[in-house]
Specification:
- The chain is built from two helices and 58 strands.
- The two termini are about 45 Å apart.
- It is about 5% helix and about 50% strand.
- It is elongated and about 80 Å long.
Length: about 650
């Protein structure tokens, strides 16, 4: 009878129907009060671009959550503009009244700098906007990107004044000269264009066959500085002659680093260039490097001088670093804290007051949910981070060795609490075990409930169960060789007696961890699974798919209970409520859906993240849900 039921369900599955009438009755009912609200946001999101106020007293940082205003020596922080899109570039108008920003959905916004009110939306782009510059008088805004024209806008009315057409596919950067009478633009085909901005006539074109131009700045009325791969060209636009070639010293992954961004000082005597993760300050009187500034962990993304030229700010592609430098000495004045990269995992620590979060850059930050501040920032330099049951050990994929590694978390965390700065903390001193060399291209690492074994999945199709203390193999599971498969995720049953492995394109394989035998295979033929999770009682398995669906099975009979839809994109994470019949799912569509697992129906959809939701975790009593996203924030939700 059961076999017949399963066959009927599988036959119905292809129709896309849901099966909510078959209910997992053993799970507890949902509490009466199910409306969840966001109670706190941990982190300021990513930091992409910066802009000084003309008086030099304030700094705007643009990122995944909009615009943050820093004042009074960066001690007073205001979320000036909250956006649903990520702000990629920002510029402050010369008269201090307006701030312009570009977003990841190809919009240009102009806000009132005093209160963040949206004044204008400039539309028309269908691809990325690469550069945006105010005219010196602030009356016009020039923009360029992945199209063949530069757009000139009236900054007051938002009217598009003219398109400066180029014989090229895209315009990489633009720069106004000092009095606003000329505009320089550079193309991906390595040509420089000079425009008369009184009548919008093209004055001259200077082709260069030697490679890609990436940045341009005016040095003097007739001289441009142009970034060309690893060198900076000094070009006299009155003659078209290349006056100097400045070769930097910075290396990026063994090769001369590309100059991706430049900024001329207000006096024109210094030039800052972002070269890989290094900033080089050139003295343009001597044509020598004055300072080499280090400290960024990723390629420099933006550089901006203060109006008086006494200091400048920089960001990098990690999305979490804003540094302020003294231009007279080349010394770092301060780093602005609070901006963070995307998040891989979140986990509630014992006691429910602190959350441990693993970030895309390999850092683990401990957030106190009451203070909404970082307690500790630990440079673990690992991905796929997982803690054992008593929080004495942490496992992860070492970014340096690319092998699964176990560290002494108890000592590492304790020592980090006593340090003023954890920048120099060496996680290698806390290393317990490195599982090598037989593990390859790891996709997940998970402790068993007892904390004495580690399950590891590999993209070559193998799944390992390892002795956590010795690293020895207890079991190695491998799919048939005729399948070119990836073992994408592993998940232990709550009692540790079974291990579920998500095999991309095939389904979910269940193994008995007591004897290493295969118990069965769940094979959803019409969708690719992307994430799996056991129910707290171990009786059910849930899967999230690439298409955004949720599928629930009986983990004993492998009977399909329901398949239901709600998300519009990939399901990245699943988290069962510890005490009731609620399932949380997070997706690339930016939403969190709370499901009634009795019926397969949506209880509530939570929105707030600007971008994909990548991590979910309930606290131990189920009163709060933590979510992490690519926007670099952790959000705390509760129905209390």
């Amino acid at each position: 009878m059961m076999t017949a039921l399963i066959l009927v369900l599988l036959a119905m599955w292809g129709t896309g129907l849901s099966y909510a009438n078959i209910s997992p009755q053993s799970l507890q009912q949902i509490p009466d009060q199910t409306s969840y609200r966001e109670v706190s946001i941990l982190g300021h999101g990513s930091a992409n671009s910066i802009a000084w106020s003309p008086d030099g007293d304030s700094l705007i940082v643009a990122g995944s959550l909009g615009l943050w205003l820093y004042e009074d020596n960066f001690q007073v922080v205001t979320h000036l503009v909250s956006t649903s899109e990520e702000v990629l570039q920002v510029v402050w108008s010369p008269d201090s009244t307006k701030i312009a920003g570009t977003t990841d959905n190809h919009q240009i916004y102009i806000w009132d700098a005093s209160n963040g009110t949206l004044l204008r939306t400039l539309q028309g782009y269908t691809d990325d906007i690469r550069s945006m510059k105010w005219s010196p008088d602030g009356e016009r805004l020039a923009t360029s990107g992945f199209e063949s024209s530069v757009r000139i806008w009236d900054s007051t009315t938002g009217e598009l004044l003219i398109l400066l057409e180029h014989d090229t596919r895209s315009i990489w950067d633009i720069a106004w000269n000092g009095d606003g009478t000329q505009l320089a633009s550079i193309s991906t085909e390595s040509a420089v264009y000079i425009w008369n901005m009184n009548n919008y006539v093209l004055l001259s074109t200077f082709p260069n066959p030697n490679g890609l131009y990436t940045s341009v700045s005016w040095h003097s009325p007739n001289v441009l500085a142009i970034a060309n791969f690893s060198v900076i060209l000094i070009l006299d636009v009155s003659t078209g002659r290349e006056e100097q070639v400045l070769q930097g010293n910075s290396i990026w992954y063994g090769n001369p680093a590309t100059v991706e961004y430049m900024a001329m000082s207000p006096s024109g005597n210094q030039l800052a260039s972002g070269v890989g993760a290094t900033i080089e300050i050139w003295d343009l009187n001597t044509l020598q490097i004055q300072y080499t500034l280090e400290g960024h962990t990723d390629r420099v993304r933006d550089l901006k001088w203060s109006l008086d030229g006494s200091y400048f700010a920089s960001t990098d592609y990690s999305g979490q670093t804003v540094r302020i430098w003294d231009t007279a000495t080349g010394k770092l004045l301060t780093s602005i804290e609070g901006h963070t990269a995307g998040i891989n995992q979140v986990a509630w620590m014992l006691g429910n007051d602190n959350i441990a979060a693993s970030y895309f850059d390999g850092t683990v930050r401990i957030w106190n949910t009451q203070l909404t501040s970082v307690v500790s920032s630990i440079p673990l330099d690992a991905w796929l981070v997982s803690w054992n049951n008593d929080w004495s050990r942490v496992a992860g994929l070492s970014r340096s060795s690319e092998h699964p590694t176990v560290w002494n978390w108890a000592e590492l965390y304790e020592d980090s609490q006593t340090m003023i700065s954890t920048t120099g903390l060496d996680a290698g001193q806390y290393l317990i075990m490195e599982y090598r060399p037989y593990l390859y291209d790891i996709s997940s690492i998970v402790w068993n409930p007892n904390g004495d074994q580690v399950a590891v999945s590999s993209r070559d199709g193998r799944v390992y169960i390892l002795d956590a203390a010795t690293g020895s193999e207890i079991y190695v599971f491998e799919e048939a060789e005729e399948f070119s498969v990836e073992a994408w995720q592993v998940a232990w049953s709550p009692d540790g007696s079974r291990l579920a492995g998500l095999i991309l394109g095939l389904g979910i394989q269940i193994w008995n961890t007591n004897d290493g035998t295969a118990d069965g295979m769940l094979t959803p033929v019409d969708e690719w699974m992307w994430r799996i999770a056991w129910s707290p009682d171990g009786k059910y398995l849930v899967g999230g798919t690439v298409q955004g669906d949720i599928i629930l099975w009986n983990a004993s009979t492998y009977a399909l209970i329901f398949k239901t839809s709600g998300h519009t994109d990939v399901v990245n994470e699943l988290a069962w409520h510890p005490n009731s019949n609620i399932l949380a799912s997070g997706s690339n569509d930016g939403t969190i859906i709370l499901w009634d697992v009795n019926t397969g129906e949506v209880i509530e959809t939570l929105t707030g993240h600007n971008g994909p939701v990548t991590a979910l975790a309930w606290n131990s009593d189920g009163t709060q849900l933590a979510s992490g996203g690519e926007d670099g924030t952790i959000r705390i939700w509760t129905n209390e």
